[in-house]
Design a protein that fits this description.
Blueprint: H1 3-10, H2 20-49, H3 55-78, H4 83-100
Helix pairs in contact: 1-3, 1-4, 2-3
Length: about 110
């Protein structure tokens, strides 16, 4: 499955309010909320399990990562972006940074 195929299928499960601003805000907050759930699960694994990730932990993390992916796909569509194109542009940017020796550092446009 390509990312665009995923995006297309994800969009079949979207419920919108009809208010473009509220919907966009919903997607952005969803991205952050679900990413926070990933972080929270990892935090508890570190705190309660000495950082050892079980197979069950991996299954639960995969669910949360999937939720992050869904919100990203929907928000990208909301902005008019192909998910495949977003992914390709990101890899090109990172490869450029690597080849120029600036993967580390600060600033979006390095």
């Amino acid at each position: 499955m390509t990312l665009d195929e995923y995006q297309e299928r994800a969009l079949t499960t979207v419920i919108t309010s009809g208010d473009l601003f509220k919907d966009s805000l919903h997607w952005v907050l969803g991205i952050n909320g679900e990413a926070g759930e990933v972080a929270e699960k990892v935090k508890k694994i570190i705190r309660d399990k000495d950082g050892k990730i079980s197979e069950q932990d991996k299954k639960e993390l995969a669910k949360e990562i999937g939720d992050v992916l869904w919100y990203l796909a929907v928000f990208a569509h909301d902005l008019g972006f192909s998910f495949d194109k977003v992914a390709a542009q990101n890899l090109e940017k990172l490869q450029s940074r690597k080849s120029r020796g600036v993967l580390g550092g600060a600033g979006d446009n390095r």
